[in-house]
Design brief:
It is a single chain. Strands 1, 2, 3, 4, 5, 6, 7, 8 and 9 form a nine-stranded mixed β-sheet that branches. This protein has a six-stranded mixed β-sheet with strand order 13-12-11-14-10-15. Helix content is about 30%, strand content about 25%. The chain folds into two domains: about 260 residues, L-amino peptidase D-ALA esterase/amidase; about 120 residues, Ubiquitin-like (UB roll) (Roll). By secondary structure, the protein is α+β, with helices and mostly antiparallel strands. The protein contains eleven helices and 15 strands. Helix 1 packs across helix 2, helix 2 runs parallel beside helix 3 and helix 5 crosses helix 6.
Length: about 400
Amino acid sequence: MKTSSEDAIAYNVVPFAWPKGYQSDGIHAGLREGKDMGWIYSEVPAQAAGTYTTNQFQAAPTKLTKQTINIKHELQAVVMNSANANSVTGDQGMIDAKKVQQLVANKLNIEQQLVGVASTGIIGVPLPMDIMEHGISELELKDNTDVTKAILTTDKHAKTVSVQLTVENKPVTISGFCKGSGMIHPKMATMLGFVVTDAKISDGLLQPMLSHEVDSTFNQITVDGDTSTNDMVVTLANGAAGNTEITEQSADYPAFVSAFNKVLSELAKDIAKDGEGSTKLVEVNVKNAANHDDAQKVSKAIVGSNLVKAAIFGEDANWGRIIAAIGQTNAKVDINHTSVWLNGLALVDNSASANFDEAEMKKTLESNTITILVDLNSGTATGQAWGCDLTYNYVRINASYRS
C-alpha cells in the first residue's frame, strides 16, 4: 500500500453533501431527546470496508457489521442509533442486532447481508426493540444530512467533511461523518465513522486503503485513554461517478488516497477538538525519529498524557511533563539533544530549557489550538497525533453520564 502524500494536492474541501447515488435520513425514534436513529443508503450495492474496536467486549452490532462486510465486501445500507450501545447484552444482543438488520433489509427490499448496523450509547442495556422497529418504519430516503446528528452522544456538534477531486475528467466526491467526544483512544476504537464515495475502486483495494489511512488518522487521536466496545469506521464506494475503476497503478490513485486521507484526518481532528469538556485542540508533530512507528508512538504519548493535558488546560509551560511523556515510550531518543517547540516558540533546546519568555509562552497557551513540535534527533521519520486539554468539565460530564 502506497502512502498518501500532500504533494501536488488535487482535491478541494467543499460544503458537506452526499456523493452521487446516496440518500439518508435521521429521525427522533424515542431512544432519547432529539434525533437518535438514522441510515445511509446507496442506490446500488457498494464496495465496503471497515475497521473495528479492539475492546474485548466488542458489541453485537459491531461484530455483526464486521461479519456482514467479510462475506462479500459489499453493503447497500447502514442503519445506526444513539442512546443505546447494545453492548454486553448477551445472546439477546446479537438476536436484536440481526432483527434490526432484517427490518431494514425488508423495508429497502434488499438482501439482509447488504445491511450494516451501528449503535452507540450506554453499555449493558438491551435494545428497546419496539422503539427500534417503529423508528425503522419511519425512516425515509431523503437528501438531508440529519443522520449526522442522529449518532451524537456527548458531542457538541455534528462532525462532517466533503472533498471533491477529478478522476479521468469526472467529478468524484468523498464525504465522511463521525461521532466521538469521550472514550477516545482508538486502535480502532471509541468512535463511529462513516465515509462514502461515488468513486469506482478495484476489488480488494478499499480495505487495505482504509486500514492504512486509519492508522495515521483516527488511531492517532486520544481524549481520555479509554477504548469503547462499539466503535468502527465503515467506508462505501458505489461507483456512481462513472470513472474507470481506480487501481494502485492508476494515475489518479495518489490524488484519491490523499483526498481520502484528508477526510479521515479532518474528522479525527474534529473529534479531538470536541473532546468532552475540552477547550483546546492539541496537535503534536514529531520529526527526526528513528522510524515512523517511533514518531507515532511519541506523538500519541504526549497528547495522551494527563499531566500534559492538565498543564495545557492550566496554560502552564511545564515542559518537563512533555519530556517525561517522551521518555515513557520505548522509542529511540537522543536524550541529550531533544528539542521541543510550542506554537513555534522554543521550549526545550537540546534537552535543556530554552530560556523562553514566560509571559510570551503564557500568552500563546491561551490559544484554542496548541501545536507541539518535537525533534528526537534520532533519524528522519515523522509522526503526528491529536488530542485536547483535560478540564474540570470532563469530570462533570462523565460523573453523570447515565443521569
